[in-house]
Design a protein that fits this description.
It contains four helices and no strands. The protein is mainly alpha-helical. The longest helix has 70 residues.
């Protein structure tokens, strides 16, 4: 099927916009990493999730504008859109997203800190009871251990030929 020049221009512009959207999504992940400093296993999971989202975004865009017929100029348009985004507004978007993420983290901490304190106070009796049970179990273990040691000593003396009077 032959495409008109105007349709190809439309597809090109849509793919440039898709490339810019890909840059925004990438900046979202970058700002989350910058603000939260996750561990390497979390980073790996984020990378997989990012590429899955990118695959879906590019496929849906290509499907909607060109019936999923991928052409060379579409790939070039994606790269141009991403490069244009990163050169122009990426740093401002990153700053904005970091402010939002930090504000959200402070808000969540402000809400969760009192709940944590309440939960800590509520579980304190259970912790004390657990500690008391642990001490009792340790005492019982020590008594049993000393009884066993005494019996072993007594048996050794009996079998060694020395009879002990009770």
């Amino acid at each position: 099927m032959e495409l008109s020049v105007s349709h190809q221009a439309y597809v090109f512009v849509c793919m440039v916009l898709c490339g810019m959207l890909s840059g925004i999504i990438f900046d979202i992940f970058r700002s989350i990493r910058r603000c939260t400093k996750p561990k390497s296993c979390i980073i790996a999971a984020q990378d997989l999730f990012f590429w899955f989202i990118e695959l879906c975004v590019v496929y849906i865009t290509a499907f909607e504008v060109n019936n999923a017929q991928i052409r060379g100029y579409e790939a070039i348009a994606l790269v141009l859109g991403a490069v244009f985004y990163f050169v122009t507004v990426s740093e401002y978007v990153m700053r904005f997203l970091c402010h939002i993420i930090r504000f959200a983290m402070k808000t969540v901490n402000a809400v969760l800190k009192p709940l944590y304190k309440i939960l800590h106070v509520m579980t304190l009796p259970f912790k004390k009871a657990r500690s008391a049970v642990k001490k009792k179990a340790e005492n019982i273990k020590n008594r049993i251990s000393s009884l066993v040691k005494n019996e072993i000593r007594r048996l050794k003396t009996i079998f060694s030929g020395k009879i002990q009077k009770y």
